[in-house]
Every structure is written in C-alpha cells, then in structure tokens.
Amino acid sequence: MELKLMMEKLGASQTHLGLKNMIKEVDEDFDGKLSFREFLLIFRKAAAGELQEDSGLHALARLSEIDVSTEGVKGAKSFFEAKVQAINEASRFEEEIKAEQEEKKKQAEEMKQRKAAFKELQSAFKQ
C-alpha cells in the first residue's frame, strides 16, 4: 500500500498487478514486501541499466533521481526540497478535504437532531 501511495504521489500510478511485479523484481528475500535495502536496490539497478524501460521500477527511479555531477549539490538540495514541499502540500490538501468532510458530517448530524427535536415537539401538539 505504501508503494502504491508513493507511486500515486509521484504521478506514476500503478495497477495492483503492476505493483506486485515491481516488488517481485527486487524482492531478494521473497517475503512479498520491500525492505529498505530492496528499495535502494531499485536505484542501483536503474543506474546499472538493469531495469526494463516499461517497468514501474524504471519509472520510479526516473521520477526520483537527480544527477549531482551536472546539477551540483545545491541543485540536488533544491530538487529534494521541492519534492518534500510537494508532498507536504498534497498532505495539507488532504487534511483540508478531511476537515471539510468532518464538518459536513457534523452539520448533517446536527440537522438530524434538530429534526428529531422538532418532531418530538410536533407530536406533543398533536395529542
């Protein structure tokens, strides 16, 4: 699930089968999960040219790499700071949506309670 979310945030969404194939390609201990070492292996294989061009792992490596020799350390720093900022903005946006949804639920519950109270008062007058 974490890999799926990461790929979506990077703008390279994958299907469930695509994700399983990505994991299988670097899963050295055959546990069906990516350890940190196996995650780093993705980038090692990408640098060595061992990943298929159309694989999700190649897309992942391509989306999250920077050549420090051409960009310099400050360029790499800017690249990663921009990535972190983009993730934080997406997270903040998600929090705003959740807050709006909670507010709507709260308003709906209050409306339901007011209707119930009104019906109770209305029934008192009918008797």
TrEMBL record:
Transmembrane segments: none annotated. Gene3D superfamilies: EF-hand (1.10.238.10). PROSITE patterns: EF_HAND_2. Residues 14-49 form the EF-hand domain. InterPro entries: EF-hand-dom_pair (IPR011992), EF_hand_dom (IPR002048), EFHD1/2 (IPR040365). Keywords: Calcium, Coiled coil, Metal-binding, Repeat. Residues 83-121 form a coiled coil. SUPFAM superfamilies: EF-hand. This is EF-hand domain family member D2. The gene is EFHD2.
